[in-house]
Description:
The protein has 16 helices and five strands. The protein has helices at 2-17, 42-50, 64-74, 80-93, 106-113, 122-136, 155-161, 174-182, 192-211, 221-226, 228-239, 246-249, 254-260, 266-269, 280-284, 287-303; strands spanning 32-36, 55-56, 143-147, 166-171, 216-220. Helix 3 packs antiparallel against helix 4 (80-93), helix 4 (80-93) packs antiparallel against helix 5 (106-113) and helix 9 (192-211) runs parallel beside helix 16 (287-303). The N and C termini lie far apart (65 Å). The mean pLDDT is 91.
Amino acid sequence: MWSxxxxxxxxxxxxxxxxxxxxxxxxxxxxxxxxxSGRCGTTLLRRILQASPDVHIPPExxxxxxxxxxxxxxxxYLDWEQIVEIVVAAHQHRTHEWFKHIDxxxxxxxxxxxxxxxxxxxxxxxxxxxRYHGESVGAEFNRWGDKTPINVNRMRGIxxxxxxxxxxxxxxxxxxVVHSWSRHEKYEGDVLQPARRWKNAVTVARKxxxxxxxxxxNVRYEHLVREPEEAVxxxxxFIDLAYSERLLSRTDHYQEIEKAQSxxxxxxxxxxxxxxxxxxxxxxxxxxxKKDIMPILNDTLSRHGYERLIN
Length: 311
């Protein structure tokens, strides 16, 4: 019995006698987060913004929301060493190949463990890991961004950790998104799950924008590929990033991204920006599949200015 209670007693004792680690200390690094439904242009936008000499955007980070949620639930009785180990481990195992090229992350652990009490916060720890990743792939930058579409569902939690964060939400015609996802190995011909995923993503983003209108910029994929200069200039103004034509024309940073994440489809993101994929789902998707997704998509399509599907 005592063996089961001992960890809880120790946790309560620690919580009562130790100063709790802050989630943030009003740090001001201005991170930005690219979110969306997936298959909506986030990879292209990552390539564009990564072309800036001031920015580094690592591969997708599926562990970020987990880390923030875990800290809020359990951080009250964990010491700094335990928090560091949890956060670093999550970024080793819940990200898209972040540290595949690093044999030993112990320098990262050791450096953060030596921070003084006044330097410790979850914000600073995560910020340090993003910067560590950038330095490990030879990137030169002074601020970082994140491109993890699924984090559209975790924006409120992220904002609690990063009060100065900005979110760029990519919105694309749901029919095109569903068609693209259905050809991906994740869904293999299924259209119902992608339809629900798109509807959820745009609905969550709309509700977030109603509560935090100054924290999110909705960018239509169609606008991004048809009028890239205008769209990217608006994005840069929103996240306070210097705009230059080089953001759209630069391609020599492919190796920097490829080194950080070896994925074949990045080759497509480095091709000339084109609007040829607009309407592809509406042109190529079969009538039966369109009929299947109509009840899921139509009202939301209309609400976001896209044409409804018809029989």
